[in-house]
Design goal:
This protein is of the alpha+beta class. The protein is built from three helices and eight strands. It starts with 34 loop residues before the first strand and ends in a 7-residue tail after the last strand.
């Protein structure tokens, strides 16, 4: 069954750049998409654009990684994307996150979320990041997750707290302050159709 979440979302559209032109990654256009779909990656182009967006955010903008942020977790993680839609068809990747099962004998049914990235032109509105987080947790919950954790950059911890996450510890990762946080699964009922995911809509255009 399709998991639908219709919300108001006021954003400016932007094209992801070619790797040779990173500044264009953060240049919005006058067009405002009217529909966004947040879903699991099911197409090769979605994965390619998700990794391109991650490089733009974590390598070029934040300088956390050099060249590429991919690691061994990507070989087993499930990617999620936020897509703009034109005439009902997926068009551009403007957000992404990944989820991965980290269960052990000592702590079964443990999942993590990581590499949350939203296109710079869309961040101030907040909804895409929140909806990516929601699908990440609800889809893991549907797969049997009983504990969902994330190492959140500390400046983003207030957003997660508003979304019913609890702080477990303050830490330093990759030379930056992070907060280890846990989702309250009572606020994230299982989503059993993450390949369709959630839909958000807007109906506003902005002037050039």
């Amino acid at each position: 069954m399709l998991c639908e979440a219709i919300e108001k979302l006021y954003v400016a559209d932007a094209l992801l750049p070619d790797d040779e032109h990173p500044p264009a990654a953060f240049m919005p256009s006058a067009f405002m998409p009217t529909e966004f779909r947040i879903k699991w990656v099911t197409q090769d182009w979605e994965a390619r654009e998700a990794h391109k967006l991650r490089r733009a955010v974590f390598c070029m903008e934040q300088g956390i990684f050099v060249g590429d942020d991919r690691d061994a977790i990507d070989d087993r993680a499930q990617l999620l994307v936020a897509l703009t839609c034109v005439a009902g068809m997926p068009d551009q990747v403007v957000g992404t996150v990944r989820i991965h099962d980290e269960s052990t004998a000592a702590q079964p049914d443990l999942w993590y979320g990581s590499r949350l990235a939203v296109h710079a032109a869309f961040r101030k509105h907040g909804r895409l990041g929140a909806t990516l987080i929601r699908l990440a947790v609800t889809s893991a919950h549907a797969l049997g997750c009983r504990t969902f954790l994330a190492h959140v950059q500390s400046q983003n911890a207030p957003l997660f707290r508003r979304l019913h996450w609890d702080t477990l510890a303050e830490e330093t990762l990759l030379g930056r302050p992070h907060t280890l946080m846990q989702a309250d699964l009572a606020h994230y009922p299982p989503c059993f159709d993450p390949k369709s995911g959630f839909v958000t809509q807007s109906s506003t255009r902005v002037a050039a």
